[in-house]
Amino acid sequence: MTPVGLLIVSHSARLAEGVVELAAQMAGSVPLVAAGGTDDGGVGTSFEKILSGVAEADRGEGVVIMTDLGSAVMTAESVLEFLDDEQRSRVRLADAALVEGSVAAAVAAESGAGVDAVVRAAEEAVPCAPAEEGPEVGEPSASAVVTLTNRAGLHARPAAVLAGRLSQLDAGITINGADAQSVMALMALGARKDAQLVVEASGPDAEKAVRLVRELVERGFGEPA
Questions:
Q1: How many beta carbons lie within 10 A of that of residue 70, not counting itself?
Q2: Rounded CA gap, 122 and 97, in Å?
Q3: pLDDT of residue 26
């Protein structure tokens, strides 16, 4: 199944392309389309770029539109009114920070989330917020302490890999007290090489979740040590 697509709408073509480049590092299979700037290459938004971008990003599972400023929202809303009823039913406009929201949305889409869940992931990604408290796991039924070995630590790509894989499991899981199924919460930990991660989980897939974290960390997420 093709993941939900993302359309990045910005007043700046370079900004839209940069957000797509960043999100693509964490969500390689997600359709990501940039619709930045005006038709003549200036600063602003383009009805035609957004309209064609929706068509390009929509592979059948829907599209979430991310915007930067108010006029981009208004142009996107005009495009939604122009779509036929069938396509409009698959397109959502997220009220979220462009960069943080797009990253979170891309990770959610990569993990197989539907269009409404992708919107929620985008809107819950709050910039400059403290690390989210993890879910209430009660008495953990599985736990481990692991040490980061990859050179860059728990930066954006490993955080996205962890959150995306763990979100598919039926478990409440925390890493150093933060929600391990949230890419933004994991990134906010600022965990670097040689940092210890306390992993705790409960629920039907608790042991599987802890084992997954251990395996990914011990392999260094495929990055240099």
A1: 8
A2: 8
A3: 81
Q: CA–CA distance from 107 to each of 160, 223, 225 (Å)?
A: 6, 19, 24
**Do 97 and 154 lie in a common domain?**
no
* Token output for 48: 């035609």
Please say whether the beta carbons of 6 and 23 come within 8 A. yes
Closest CA to 104 of 171, 186, 222, 192: 186
Pair 162, 225: CB distance under 8 Å: no
Q: Do residues 159 and 192 make contact, with C-beta atoms less than 8 angstroms apart?
A: no
Total domain count, the chain: 2
Strands (DSSP E) along 153-214, which ranges? 172-175, 178-179, 196-202
Ramachandran assignment for 199, one of left (phi > 0), alpha (psi -120 to 50 degrees), beta (any other) = beta
The model's pTM is 0.72
pLDDT of 57 reads 97
Q: Give the residues of the chain that fall short of pLDDT 50.
A: 128-132
Q: Give yes or no for a contact between 4 and 109, defined as CB atoms under 8 angstroms apart.
A: yes
Give residue 138's pLDDT.
64
Rg (CA), the chain: 18
Q: For residue 29, how far is the Cα from the chain centroid?
A: 12
What confidence score (pLDDT) does residue 90 get? 95
Q: Which domain, by its residues, includes 106?
A: 5-124
CATH of the domain at 155: 3.30.1340.10
Q: Is residue 166 part of a domain?
A: yes
Annotated catalytic residues are 11
Helix (H) or strand (E) holding 143: strand 142-147
